[in-house]
Structure formats: structure tokens, C-alpha cells
Please model this.
Amino acid sequence: MKTALISDIHANLEALREVLADIADQQVDEIYCLGDIIGYGPNPCECLDEVIDHCQVTVLGNHDQAALFDPDGFNPLALTAVYWTRDQLDHGPGTPDEIHRRWDFLGELPRMHRNSALGALFVHGSPREPTNEYIFPEDIYNQRKMEAFFERIERYCFQGHTHIPGVFTESGEFIAPDECDYVFPLGAEKVMVNVGSVGQPRDTDWRACYAIVIDESGDRRVEFRRVEYPVEETVRKIYAVTELDNMLGDRLRSGR
Ligand code: ZN
Model:
């Protein structure tokens, strides 16, 4: 069984399309999306359509939630992007049916998904607060916080939200993808895996990031993948929208 995990697309259609093309080459059985399909980027409607068509499981992210309800805890720059995104969702592109399909999809997203056979939990943020809580690499130094996460998971938790990929072990380590050659074996030890961000990486690597969980007889592992995409095209689109701060484009070039 191979499951591709994508997260934090943030309305970056160029990154999403390249990632979906890469996934198509990997012979995966299913694709899960761990939230934040929209927010920040220039193509919220198109990205929603791609996720609706390709993903078997999707969980709610804080930016997806912000489009639906009163946005909470967003800075002015992010808030302006939220309102612009809502406007895009309300007015197309597409037929009235397509517009309704997007809103219905967002409105029905669960906060978490469980796979009992794998002992795995899938969330956007954390096992404690599935939609909003961040787990940063430096949190490994906060033992009490880490314990609160690990006591809530059976074996594995897969998450996004920080846009920083890597593996948190129960023994208190954070292992970035380039520290494990982009493959981490999943064994008996509990781990939390951040799958990184498709559309706005923040680990100083500008390439789109996603992960594949491979579960074959006797071999279970997670593989991180980086995919190049035409970043300048996305930057140009962001610059062209007044409500999207130019900084949202600039940061894509440096992956910050
Ligand atoms: Zn995000």
C-alpha cells in the first residue's frame, strides 16, 4: 500500500500540478490531503477542484476553516488574503454548481482521519488541537508538550501546518528529511511526521514538498519528495493581485 500525503497547498496551482504529476509516476494507491488547500496563493478555486478530484481523504486546515468561519489569530496580511480568497470562492471561476461543490466540500471536511490498521492519525496541526496547534522542531525541548502529543497517538501521526518537513520521535529527536536521506523507517516506535508544504515551503528549500507512506509486507517507511515547479509563474500571479502581499510571492523563491 502506498499513500501520498500532501499538505499546505495554499492555492499554489503550479506547485500542486507538478506534485500530482510526480505522484502519478510513483504508483500510489491513494492520496490524502492534510489541509490548507487555500489561503495566501492566487488559485484557490483551481486547487480545490484538483483536491476534490484526486484526494480520497482530506482534513480541515486553519486556512480552510478561515474561509468558512470567522478567521481567528490571523495577521493583517493573512486576513486580507482570507477575504480575497472568500471572494474568489463566491464568484468563480466555474458554473454555480462548481462554486457550490467547492463550498460544500470545504464545509464537510473532518478535523482528523484515523487508519486503525496502520495505527495512524492524520491531522493538519497536532494530535491535541487537530486544526490550529503548531508543532515546531524546537518543541522537542519542551518535554511536557511532546508527551501530551505522543500520549494521544497509537503509533503514527501525520501532520502539516508548520510547512517544515521532518520526523519527531518519541525519544525527543527531530530528524529533517536531508538528515535521513529522505527515507525514514516506520517501526514500533511512535513518531509524528510532518509532510511539509506543497505550495509554500518554509525550510529554505523552495521546491514543493510531500511524502509517501509505503506499507509493504515487512517494510514500512515514509519517503519525502521534493519537486521543482515554475515558481516565477506563481510569483507573477501573486504580484498581479493587490490583496495578496508581494511578500507572499517573494517568500516562495527562498522557501521561507
Ligand atoms: Zn499552512
Notes: Residues 2-254 form a domain with the Purple Acid Phosphatase; chain A, domain 2 fold (CATH 3.60.21.10). The mean pLDDT is 96.
